[in-house]
Amino acid sequence: MGNRLTQIATRTGDDGTTGLGDNTRVSKNSRRPHAMGDVDELNSHIGLLLCEPLPSSVRELLIDVQHQLFNLGGELSIPGFALLKDDALLQLDQALAHYNAQLPRLQEFILPAGTRAAAQAHVCRTVARRAERAVVALQEAEPMRPAPRQYLNRLSDLLFVLARVLNRMEGGDDVYWKSERLARQDATE
């Protein structure tokens, strides 16, 4: 990996470039820094979610996710480098199965709302989707392992499920979208 930062204000990015972990410099507007930035933003939003009261199992899971996202960011910062481990994806699959099994079947689309923690989980979900799109764009331009894309895809699914779990934590429920079409259909039946 690249050198650890000993100072933050280096001024080397004043020209619109950023340094990668392999000591190359690229435009801050290129695909790789976009993907790295979206993953970093996602990690920050998960940090904000961790400020909410959460079940200890969800808290521990999200703290581990933060570490995995840091690994993913490290992988993105060094072209051709693999840092995200296969068991990280397995952990998400297991958590999805565990938390999804506790939830009732969806009746309709849900709004990103409810408790503050659930709403923040939805923000995390949408940022994870954006990070996934940025990684897909990078993978279309450069050869990369599928693991970063797969991790972000699965993580966004898990964050959706966790939002539903967090809404129920205090006896709440999903906030359903009020579809005018379905309301008309129900009225005619």
UniProtKB/TrEMBL annotation:
Span list, region Disordered: 1-34
Chain ranges of the Cobalamin adenosyltransferase-like domain: 8-165
Residue ranges crossing the lipid bilayer per the database entry: none
E.C. number(s) listed in UniProt: 2.5.1.-
Alphabetical UniProt keywords: ATP-binding, Cobalamin biosynthesis, Nucleotide-binding, Transferase
Cross-referenced InterPro entries: CblAdoTrfase-like (IPR016030), CblAdoTrfase-like_sf (IPR036451), PduO-typ (IPR029499)
One protein family per Pfam: Cob_adeno_trans
Single annotated GO MF: ATP binding
Iron recorded as keyword: no
Record-level GO BP terms: cobalamin biosynthetic process
Keyword Nucleotide-binding: yes
Subunit structure: Homotrimer.
Sequence similarity: Belongs to the Cob(I)alamin adenosyltransferase family.
PANTHER family on file: CORRINOID ADENOSYLTRANSFERASE, CORRINOID ADENOSYLTRANSFERASE MMAB
Protein's UniProt name: Cobalamin adenosyltransferase
Organism listed in the record: Paenacidovorax caeni
